[in-house]
Amino acid sequence: MDLSAVGRAVLIAREGRRLEAYRDSAGIWTVGVGHTAASGPPIPQAGLRLDEQEADALFVRDVARFVRIVAGALPEALPQHAFDALVSLCFNIGPAAFLRSTVLRRLRAGDRAGAAEAILLWDRPAALIPRRQGEYDQFRTPYETALPRARRGDA
Predict the structure, then answer these.
(1) Helices (H) and strands (E) in the chain, counts
(2) E-strand spans in the chain?
(3) DSSP state of 38
């Protein structure tokens, strides 16, 4: 599977796109669309600036890694909306955390409803709660029913 165009757009909306390096809500240096040192070069730090093309190329490279991790970890194919939600979650919490998560454990046990509920357990810092609610809604709701929101409560 791959991240859909809808999934890509909502992930960008969740992460934001900033061309100058900044510290995120956890104090981690970030640039572009959620790019951190954990994803490799360039290493975000004070003063680092990207142009739009660099930020876009970096996002394409970074997100491909998370797509591979999620696709490889799943016990069975999921609907596109659910897969996209898991890529968003993995992109935010990191591969190691995703691979040991209750979300994945429940999916492997065949409990999709429980996996959706487990998305909401990733609630720190509290500023992430609306994003997690958005990922939960995206995981549960087919795109034919409703397009996802970056955060629950967004227009």
Answers:
(1) 7, 2
(2) 18-23, 29-32
(3) G
Task: Report, as residue numbers or ranges, the catalytic residues.
Answer: 15, 24
Of residues 45, 94, 107, the one with CA closest to residue 65:
94
Reported as a single tens digit per residue, the pLDDT across 71-91 is 999 999 999 999 999 999 999
Beta bridge partners of 35: 31
Return the structure tokens found at 26.
């956890």
Amino acid at 135: E
User: What is the tens place of the pLDDT at every residue in 11-58?
Assistant: 999 999 999 999 998 899 999 999 999 999 999 999 999 999 999 999
**Which pLDDT belongs to residue 155?**
80
- The amino acid present at 21, given as its one-letter code, is A
- Please report, to the nearest 10 degrees, the dihedral formed by the alpha carbons of residues 123, 126, 127, 129 taken in order: 40
Report yes or no: 76 and 83 within 8 Å, Cβ to Cβ: no
Do the Cβ atoms of 140 and 120 come closer than 8 Å?
A: no
Distance CA 79, CA 63 (A): 19
Alpha carbons 113 and 122: distance in angstroms, whole number? 16
Q: What residues contact 19, with CB distance under 8 A and at least 6 apart? A: 31, 32, 49, 50, 51, 52, 55
